[in-house]
Give the backbone structure.
Amino acid sequence: MNSFEIRKKFLKFFANQDHQIIPSASLIPENDPTVLFTTAGMHPLVPFLMGEKHPAGRRLASIQPCIRTGDIDQVGDNVHHTFFEMLGNWSLGDYFKKEAIEFSFDFLTNKKWLNLDRNKMAVSVFAGDNDAPQDKETKKIWLSLGFPEERIKELTKKNNWWGPAGQTGPCGPDTEMFYWTGTEKAPKEFNPENSKWMEIWNNVFMEYFKNNQGKYKTLTQKNVDTGMGLERTLAVLNNLSDNYQTDVFLPIIKKIEELSGKKYDDYKKEFRIIADHLKAATFIIGDKYEIKPSNSGQGYVIRRLLRSSIRYGKKLGLPDKFLIKLIPKIVEIYGETYSYIKERENYIINIIDHEEEKFEKTLEKGLKEFEKGKNAFILYTTYGFPIELTMEIAKEKGVFIDLEKFNNELKKHQELSRTASVGMFKGGLADSGEKAVCYHTATHLLLAALRQVLGSHVYQRGSNINVERLRFDFSHSNKMTEQQIKEVEEIVNQKIKDNIPIICQEMSLEEAKNKNIMGVFENKYGQRVKIYAIGNFSQEICGGPHAKKTSALGNFKIIKEESSSAGTRRIKAKLL
Ligand code: SER
């Protein structure tokens, strides 16, 4: 059975059971800013799992392309992918456990459908904990279908609970179906630790909602959310030892063999990473949002996927620009099912071509420097070598990279540019000196206000001042809402209005640390440090100089809030 047949069969089976087939959604979630990608078929359905009426009814089925970057380091084994397709069916407050399990079991084992051997199946059910009781009903249903007790395992939340997809949302206990993939006879007893038991389908009984306090509340309706991994199921159905031998991978693998003159069997990891990563990047670029490689958010994921593929390509001795030669194979595999991939083929090739070219240059230089023993920080600042890549190479070569040191150096580097710009105003632009000093003070107020509004995860990541504006980078992942921006402005302006004197005090670094005073750059200042305090509102270790009183600042206005890089936001603000 190939991928076209399994997709068709799945949708037909559920259409026969009165399910409406819904189109797959974008890879970029439209309603959930807490995640970068659609990670499961249920993602676009969250409002409907919570009770909103779905226009297509209460029984739905779809095939959903998904991206999961959480497992990215495991890609290279035989089953983990960053891109995969999920076959799913849903009940929005319609049927529940019994029908859901019977549908799955029938589809998997009935001769008319997948005709898998029921003697090679095993299942897991939820064991229960403080948040939700043991799922006795599910166990009973499996027993009633003739499953022997030894093939049913009760597992805890870590294994048998799914969701929410983001930080909050619908979730619930699940029952997972496994299939024996060993060549020897399936053992009598199911041992979930044995990887020859391959998980192929997950039925989630979504009757809970996890809120932002981490508490589980029951939903107004009992839903079913299922997801079957297309690649895994295809491999199982065709008795293949790994997903990369199925028709959704084989044409890419064959093309890499042709281009490299090497055999897949001898270089599985490299082949797999290239095929998986390029597929994921192709789908993200081809998505309707037309995301391009960049240094933040989804664009950064594309960049990372492509850069990693290129590097593994080098190991196989693949020629420059090999990625774009593989794209037509991806289009061959998916063009019929996802027509946008075919329609945007040239566009995708152009974007990847450009990125490939850019990275070839970086890589060549960076690798040479790595061999010369340059440290991660120099590779990053001077050669634009991404830290993740340095980490990957270092791991392979058994070299230890001190990530903490890297981060510290990065911060110091940013502080130096901040001090340099302040210094520049002091010396070179005498008239503007006062304005720059005011912006410096405003930067301290801004940081304190951001921490008050967004939370204590906010730290300075970089700062730059000129006579026109301040620019401030800080650790925070999500775009700020208009309300949050307004709040920050109001707090800063209130502090300006309060006309607070700025007090400078000297103390030992030790004492400053004990007082928990903010100052990520303390190394630079030696043992005695200067602390600038603006009332109780802000205290920072800082070289100065600062305004004498906050009233000198004028009116504070945020003119832009944007992403700076992954996990870092940037604000530009003016004093008017
Ligand atoms: N949401 C569940 C999963 O991803 C079932 O689709 O496994």
